[in-house]
Amino acid sequence: MAWFYLVIAGALEVAWAIGLKQSEGFSKPVPTAFTLATMAASFYLLALAMRSLPAGTAYAVWTGIGAVGTVLIGIVWLGEPANLGRVLSLALLVAGLVGLKVSSA
What residue ranges in 8-95 does DSSP mark as E strands? Predict the structure, then answer.
């Protein structure tokens, strides 16, 4: 269950990062409420995952899912650039996440 919690926590991190962008510095009430709610849920699930996963692995995977997911949403929905450097960097992040998962099994 810990890995399941961690993946959901990472997905919620993506949600709150995008919500933070949409809140425009917490100046819009609905995106701000969304951001705070998804942030709290993400931290809660991360804490549950850390009950049985090593802290370093859990935190690195959580932030990695958040980083990769946020960049992908930025490229697909927010019109951010998808140049070779960004794509290769994402591939390295994903390789690192897979490596942490495999070495923690």
Answer: none
Residue 23, CA atoms < 13 Å, CB-side half-sphere: 18
Q: In this structure, which amino acid lies at residue 25? A: G
Give pLDDT tens digits for 27-85.
999 999 999 999 999 999 999 999 999 999 999 999 999 999 999 999 999 999 999 99
- DSSP for residue 77: T
Selection from 62, 70, 72 nearest residue 96 by Cα = 62
Q: What are the tokens at 14?
A: 């993506």
Q: What's the pTM?
A: 0.87
Q: Which amino acid is at 86?
A: R
Backbone phi and psi for residue 35, each to the nearest 5 degrees, phi listed first: -60, -50
